[in-house]
């Protein structure tokens, strides 16, 4: 097509195309909140999350008091969650919980808020801010909705997250033990004993503390904690090691008593 013909084509048909575009935009703008939600939900179901986000945001801005406002808020959060944008998703779940406290989506939003932080929780050696947030959110979910179908999963995830925190302290304790900083190591073992008594690292923390006490020649305290270990963890894989340390501590106490006479 020659340039002159192309210009003539644009002059004739461009106004028509603009008119059709404006007409289409007006039709969308004139949709009810319910109709706009159905369009957004259809896009969501087809995993067209970016497109759906625009529809749900439009409803929240233009129809904040509509019957589908909480639906739009929830699915907006779901769009971000399904895209792996967990910080954005967490913010939108919180908006639903605070702005629509009577919504049917509140229980699931509390659970999904916990999942956002759970998915953001890093490896044990890194900063654990999101791990603490995940525990708080999931515990809040359980407290508010104790009969919900996702409670058991929330409990499992809390246990997993607590183990991650305990593992961080345990590995730090071992780090100081290898460098013979036994007093520093005991701080981390005591942290597990006091803060994470339900973790899988509890017997390891006790065993680490007993070894540190022995290395610091605090034999009586080592024996006392070893006795506690035997009562608490009769089936622990570390029991033989603890008993060996206890026997050596008892021998040292006996020697000290003989030399002091």
UniProtKB/TrEMBL annotation:
<dbReference type="Pfam" id="PF13525">
    <property type="entry name" value="YfiO"/>
</dbReference>
<keyword id="KW-0472">Membrane</keyword>
<dbReference type="InterPro" id="IPR011990">
    <property type="entry name" value="TPR-like_helical_dom_sf"/>
</dbReference>
<keyword id="KW-0732">Signal</keyword>
<protein>
    <submittedName>
        <fullName>Outer membrane protein assembly factor BamD</fullName>
    </submittedName>
</protein>
<dbReference type="InterPro" id="IPR017689">
    <property type="entry name" value="BamD"/>
</dbReference>
<feature type="domain" description="Outer membrane lipoprotein BamD-like">
    <location>
        <begin position="33"/>
        <end position="209"/>
    </location>
</feature>
<keyword id="KW-0998">Cell outer membrane</keyword>
<dbReference type="InterPro" id="IPR039565">
    <property type="entry name" value="BamD-like"/>
</dbReference>
